[in-house]
Amino acid sequence: MLNAQFFTDTGFQREKNEDAGGIFYNKTNQQLIALCDGMGGHQAGEIASQFVCDGLQKYFEEENLIEEDQAEDWLKHTLQRINRELYDYSNQNPEYRGMGTTCVVALVFDKHVVVANVGDSRAYLVNARRMEQITNDHSFVNHLVMLGELTEEEALTHPRRNIITKVMGTDRRVSPDVFMKRTHFYDYLMLNTDGLTDYVALDTIKSILNQDAALEQTGEALLMQSREDGACDNVSIVLAQIEGDSV
């Protein structure tokens, strides 16, 4: 189990916070951490993000022990189930029709983490030497980067950088990506919405994470840096400290 906290900030130009997140535990005290970014420009993004987080909490808390070889199927099937429920809910309530959300979720084991994502909210493993991005963004510009048509630097300023190619809630079917990573030799697992990495350079994030401060101070420092760097979007982070490993 990791020492984990959820941090969030509305940002300079947003009147409401459409992000949601949490740290959840099942009947055997396994740990699930989740982060969702309700889609700006879609109706009721904050409803969608909280709906998905609430669904993850509900279904996880009903579970007993999930073995490592069951984790991928559990995450995929649970996200697909919640996606169908969100899609049906939005269609039953015209004021919510078209709402959607990204989701990144991590199921924590002793030496591994299994991560699933839909959209462009990310998961990273971090130590003093590197920030390893676990997830791949489901976005128009990342598709071009993977094809070799854009560099990562060009993607940061591309006029269509905000186009997301896969979200939860807008279609009845969704296919999450799932990754398994060893956590040995890392200091932090970080989930974040694009409000952080769109405005704060990765080297700056890594530097803050390696200042050897308490978890709460580190999370607040990341939010403060996002404000200093002019974040116009909601900024949310789930930061989990990996104990007992060293670089």
TrEMBL record:
One of its GO terms (molecular function) is metal ion binding. The keyword Iron does not apply. InterPro entries: PP2C (IPR015655), PPM-type-like_dom_sf (IPR036457), PPM-type_phosphatase-like_dom (IPR001932). SMART domains: PP2C_SIG (SM00331), PP2Cc (SM00332). Its cofactor is Mn(2+). Keywords: Hydrolase, Manganese, Metal-binding, Protein phosphatase. Pfam families: PP2C_2. Its EC number is 3.1.3.16. This is protein-serine/threonine phosphatase. It comes from Staphylococcus massiliensis S46.
